[in-house]
Amino acid sequence: MIIGVPKEIKNNENRVALTPAGVAEFKKNGHLVYVQKGAGENSGLSDEEYTAAGAEIVPTIEAVYDIAEMIIKVKEPIASEYPLIKKDQLLFTYFHFASCEPLTHAMIEQKAVCLAYETVEKSDRSLPLLVPMSEVAGRMAIQEGAKYLEKPMKGKGILLGGVPGVPPAKVLVLGGGIVGTQAAKMAAGFGARVVIMDVSLPRLRHLADIMPANVTTVMSNHYNIREAIAEADLIVGAVLIPGAKAPHLITRDMLKLMHPGTVVVDVAVDQGGCIETCTPTTHENPTFIIDDIVHYCVANMPGAVPYTSTLALTNATLPYALQLANKGWKKACAENEELKKGLNVANGKVVYEGVAQAWGLPFENVDSVLQN
C-alpha cells in the first residue's frame, strides 16, 4: 500500500502522524511511504531521518494526497484539505465528527473512508488511541491551569500548591477517565486540594484506592457540581462519550457561582466541550474570558509538546496502521473488532451511530459496508 504523511496545517499543530521508526516498519512490510517535506520538523524529526528510514520526501501536501492510498494524520482535515481527498482514500486520524458538521458532510461528499483514532475501542471499552494523548492532555491541563491562575493571566493569583502557612488551590476534575486521572495525579503532585468527580461508583472506588490523601472522590451529579464549582480555583473538564458530543455539566448560568479569576480548562472541547461557554481556541490565542472566568479551550493541547506527543501517538497507532496497510481496510476491519469500531464514514455513508445522531444523518450498519 502507498502511505502518505502530510504536514499538519491546523493552527499550531506541531505533531506528525508517523516517526522515522514507523516508516521503517512500513517499509519492512513492503509498503511505500511518502512524507511531505518538513512534516516532522516541529517534532524534532528531520527529512534526513525520514529518508534514512526509507521514506520518499515530496514537496507539497497536494502531492501527498495525490499519490497515497492511505493518509495518516494527527488532526482532522481542515477545509483547504477537503478537495484534496479522493474517493475511497483511507484517512486514519483523529476526526471528532460529532463536534464538526461541515467536516462530516465534506467526508461524506468526498466518499472517503474515515477511520477515527478516537473510536477505535477494545472489548473492555477502553480507547487505545486516545489513551496516550489523553495522558498528555490531562497532565497539561494542570500545567496550563496553574499558569492561567497567575494574576497577569487574569487568574485569581493563586499558587497551585500554596506555601507553608497559606493553603493550596482547590482543583475540581470532572470525569475520572484517563484525562481526569492524570489531571488529578498532576494537581495532587503540585500539592493542590483535589476533588475528582465521576458517575461510576466502581470507578470512584478505584480512584480512592490509588490517589494520594489530598484527592477526594465525589459522585458526579448536578447538585454536587454546583456545590464544588463555587469553591474551586481551577476546574478541568475531562468528560468523554466515545464518538458523541460531551454533555454540558457546567452551563452558562452556573458561571455566576464561581469566583472571578477561576480558570476552566475544557479538555473535552474537541468533542463539543463539557462546559457550555467553551469554544475551541488555539495555542496562539488559548484563552478568553466570560463573566470574569478564564476559559482555556485549546482543542489540540498535546500539540504544544510535539516531541513527546508524536512518539506516544505513533507507539499506539502503528500496530493498527500496519494492519490496515497489510490487509486493506475492509479485511482489517472485518477481522478486528477494534478497528471496525473506528470506522465513522465510508463510501459516502455514516457508519458510526453517534455521528449520525449528532447531525440527524442516516445511519448505515458498518457490516453492510464491509460486505460490499
From TrEMBL:
Binding-site positions, NAD(+): S134, D198, R203, S220, V239, L240, V267, A268, V269, D270, V298, A299, N300, M301
GO cellular component terms given for this protein: plasma membrane
Matching SUPFAM superfamilies: Formate/glycerate dehydrogenase catalytic domain-like, NAD(P)-binding Rossmann-fold domains
Domain Alanine dehydrogenase/pyridine nucleotide transhydrogenase N-terminal: 4-137
GO MF terms, alphabetically ordered: alanine dehydrogenase activity; nucleotide binding
Source organism, top-level taxon: Bacteria
Keyword NAD: yes
Binding annotation for substrate: R15, K75
Enzyme kind, highest EC tier: oxidoreductase
EC number: 1.4.1.1
Catalytic site: H96, D270
GO biological process: L-alanine catabolic process
Pfam families according to UniProt: AlaDh_PNT_C, AlaDh_PNT_N
UniProt cross-references to NCBIfam families, sorted A to Z: alaDH
Family recorded in the similarity comment: Belongs to the AlaDH/PNT family.
Name the UniProt record assigns to this protein: Alanine dehydrogenase
